[in-house]
Design brief:
One of its GO terms (molecular function) is phosphoglucomutase activity. The termini are far apart. The chain is α/β, with parallel strands linked by helices. It binds alpha-D-glucose-1-phosphate-6-vanadate (VG1) and cobalt (II) ion.
């Protein structure tokens, strides 16, 4: 125990169970006395620092970010960390934290973010912990932290004034060195090692027009340095580039609904050749061509099929992985490449072991997340650069490349229906009802779709043998259709049911159909099988992506 530390008595909160990606709650919940402190001390109790331990700390700049970081710095000092690497201004994107942990040999990192959820005094806040491989803490760790939060009685904190987070350099709190670091430098250097920056710069210099929407979230400074600085794109290429505590009042969620400004540009007159956006903490990506949207599941498949064009992946891919609800488009590519495709539960933590063991090189999720073995998080700007590298190498438009992919591998139409903020008990009933009917479904016909298989996804980690149960209900239909049902683990009020729909279309003559029309039958079957709207007592989905 550090001589500067003060011990403070506290009482437990009962609601600190981490979800898909850390602990997410409304800001007022986090501002309750000792709420953050309890969680952070529980974390340090479960993973105490070894001598010399380095901890990375940063966040997406949302409301409460700076206040929380000041507290965490003083608690980390009191708990005996040797060195803290804190992003200047309290800023670090999720992928930048992962990169810093790995490049600087840190034992872990604390990320303050609620990702794409809105921010502000009544918005969402969150805290997640990444372990020494740079990836999200596995359930085994987060379960222990949760157990600890229910019995915690005291925490340690080093008293003192707030630190100046805006000036790079080192200061000390007792024996702990606090180093304020440039949030962008290490990450940008890593990107330059992976991609052919010269080829991308030539593409842009040759008149290929790009636009990137940082959505007033964390990627602004990263994107400006990389696109406008290193790659020579004109000033103004990065829009909404200033991280704001309330993200300008928007959801920093890069999809067709929330990245509406970018979508308008890309469908407008004189649209650029390429458009992209990222989310609150910089781990998601949305890719668009001129008047063309790239579905994230397709994007993963396409990156796998074109990886040989990127310097870092030129030697070939070891394997690929996708989360359960992600379309099976990447499986088809893997089969052609003669490599394995793994199916994991939702959430990046399940990719960590596969990456560490060298079983996979690329992985992704339908929720606008793609990544590789370069770090242990999904990575928004990395995906954008991957696309630009492919575009530079192939010299074709986004639309041409995607359509060519479909004609080679077939098109997996994909759509997600979200029923947000529904009654938690009703949502649980729906899942229980489906579970009960699973055995009876195969062979039956619902809304014109003949069901082939129906089961509940259970994942056995091929590396450490750990088992994750009840990870989603999956139903397949004759003719290449699939429906997945699961409950969200990132919401902060009520429950959210996600229903994922997919259908493989091999006939290129039918590839130009609208996604909603192509999946209308699957959607009807999905609603009927789950009796979704009756059980939830709602008229329809709240968000369709
Ligand atoms: C959602 C997505 C999941 C993603 C998670 C964290 O989780 O579906 O694919 O890994 O968010 O992403 P859920 O449990 O709500 O479906 V992020 O960018 O919010 O860290
Ligand atoms: Co995110």
């Amino acid at each position: 125990m550090d001589a500067f530390a003060t011990e403070i008595e506290t009482t437990p909160y009962e609601d600190q169970r981490p979800g898909t990606s850390g602990l997410r709650k409304k800001v007022p919940v986090f501002r309750q006395p000792n709420y953050l402190e309890n969680f952070v001390q529980s974390l340090f109790d479960v993973v105490p620092p070894a001598p010399g331990a380095v901890l990375v700390i940063g966040g997406d700049g949302r409301y409460h970010n700076r206040t929380a970081i000041q507290t965490i710095i003083r608690m980390a000092a009191a708990n005996g960390f040797s060195r803290l690497l804190v992003g200047r201004g309290g800023i670090l994107s999720t992928p930048a934290v992962s990169a810093l942990i790995r490049r600087r040999g840190a034992c872990g990192g604390v990320v303050l973010s609620a990702s794409h959820n809105p921010g502000g005094p009544d918005g969402d806040f969150g805290i997640k912990y990444n372990v020494e491989n740079g990836g999200p803490a596995p359930s085994e760790v987060t379960d222990k932290v949760y157990d600890r939060t229910r019995e915690i009685r005291r925490y340690s904190i080093a008293p003192g004034p707030d630190l100046d987070l805006d000036r790079e350099g080192e200061t000390r709190i007792g024996d702990t060195v606090v180093e304020i670091v440039d949030p962008v430098a290490d990450y940008a250097a890593l990107m330059q090692e992976i991609f052919d920056f010269d080829a991308i710069a030539r593409l842009i210099g040759g008149g290929f027009r790009i636009t990137f929407d940082a959505m007033h979230a964390v990627t602004g400074p990263y994107a400006r340095t990389i696109f406008e600085g290193m790659l020579g794109a004109p000033a103004g290429t990065v829009r909404n580039s200033e991280p704001l505590p309330d993200f300008g009042g928007h959801h920093p969620d890069p999809n067709l609904v929330h990245a509406e400004e970018l979508v308008r540009t890309m469908y407008g007159a004189d649209a650029p050749d390429f458009g992209a956006a990222s989310d609150g903490d910089g781990d998601r990506n949305m890719i668009m061509g001129r008047r063309f949207f790239v579905n994230p599941s397709d994007s993963l498949a396409l990156l796998a099929a074109n990886a040989h064009l990127v310097p870092a992946y030129g030697a070939g891919l070891k394997g690929v992985a996708r989360s359960l609800p992600t379309s099976r488009a990447v499986d088809v590519v893997a089969e052609r490449l003669g490599i394995r495709a793994y199916e994991t539960p939702t959430g990046w933590k399940y990719f960590g072991n596969l990456l560490d063991a060298g079983l996979i090189t690329l992985c992704g999720e339908e929720s606008f997340g793609t990544g590789s073995n370069h770090i242990r998080e999904k990575d928004g700007l990395w995906a954008v650069l991957f696309w630009l590298n492919i575009l530079a190498a192939r010299g074709e438009s986004v639309e041409t490349i995607v359509k060519d992919h479909w004609s080679t591998y077939g098109r997996h139409f994909f759509m997600r229906h979200d029923y947000e903020e529904v009654d938690a008990q009703k949502a649980a009933e729906l899942m229980a009802g489906l579970r009960e009917r699973l055995a009876a479904l195969p062979g039956s016909s619902v809304a014109g779709e003949v069901i082939e298989t129906a089961d509940e996804f259970e994942y056995r980690d091929p590396v450490d043998g750990s088992v994750a149960r009840q990870q989603g209900i999956r139903v397949t239909t004759r003719g290449g259709g699939r429906i997945v049902y699961r409950l969200s683990g990132t919401g902060t009020s009520g429950a959210t049911l996600r229903m994922y729909l997919e259908r493989l279309e091999r006939d290129p003559a039918k590839h130009d159909e609208e996604t909603a029309a192509a999946l209308a039958g699957m959607a009807e079957a999905g609603r009927a099988i789950g009796d979704v709207e009756r059980v939830l007592g709602v008229a329809g989905p709240t968000t369709i992506t």
